[in-house]
């Protein structure tokens, strides 16, 4: 199960990277178009769609690598059961919140598909397509948070070391 979950997180991160490359392509196409006096309609909209999908799909991988911003001021002063209790509470709360966000993101994409909702821009893209990146990303984030909660409860969760705090800018 661990290998499957890690593969899921890594696959989502790989897809996020591909969307970032697509974003770069859209930006470059827009720049070249301005320089050579041609316009490709929808490049701004598609750049936004790719950026949003990339951000949401990278959330779980970022969480699993310990790269999410955490406020450890209170957590650093606690030890033992109090620290573990706060960690479990925070992971349970974040897991519940991310599960709700995932549910409503999936619901939004489904409703957009059902109602044939399209972009108001000149590209007229069916909105469920770009919303799919958000829906999938939030579902994977919810899975990752619940995975972290289970690992914390069973004392298998790896804690970020002191070097993690040195990367904070």
Which characteristics define this entry?
169 residues, mainly alpha, 6 helices, elongated
Query: How confident overall, as mean pLDDT?
Result: 89
As for the number of domains, it is: 1
**Roughly what fraction of the amino acids lie in strands?**
under 5%
Helix content: over 70%
Write down the Rg: 19 Å
Detail the topology: elements first, then pairings.
Blueprint: H1 2-35, H2 43-57, H3 59-64, H4 80-114, H5 128-153, H6 162-166
Can you put this structure into words, describing what you see?
- The chain is mainly α and 169 residues long.
- It has 6 helices and no strands.
- It has helices at residues 2-35, 43-57, 59-64, 80-114, 128-153, 162-166.
Concise account of the structure shown:
By secondary structure, the protein is mostly helical.
């Amino acid at each position: 199960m661990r290998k499957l979950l890690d593969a899921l997180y890594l696959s989502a991160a790989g897809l996020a990277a591909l969307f970032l490359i697509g974003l770069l392509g859209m930006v470059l196409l827009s720049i070249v178009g301005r320089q050579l006096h041609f316009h490709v309609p929808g490049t701004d909209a598609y750049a936004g769609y790719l950026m949003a999908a990339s951000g949401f799909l990278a959330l779980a991988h970022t969480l699993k690598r310990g790269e999410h911003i955490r406020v450890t001021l209170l957590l650093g002063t606690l030890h033992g059961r109090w620290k573990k209790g706060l960690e479990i509470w925070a992971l349970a709360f974040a897991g519940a919140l991310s599960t709700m966000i995932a549910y409503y993101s999936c619901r939004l994409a489904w409703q957009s598909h059902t109602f044939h909702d399209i972009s108001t821009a000149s590209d007229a893209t069916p909105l469920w397509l770009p919303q799919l990146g958000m829906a999938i990303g939030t579902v994977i984030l919810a899975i990752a948070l619940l995975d972290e909660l289970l690992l914390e409860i069973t004392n298998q969760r790896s804690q970020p070391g002191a070097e993690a705090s040195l990367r904070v800018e």
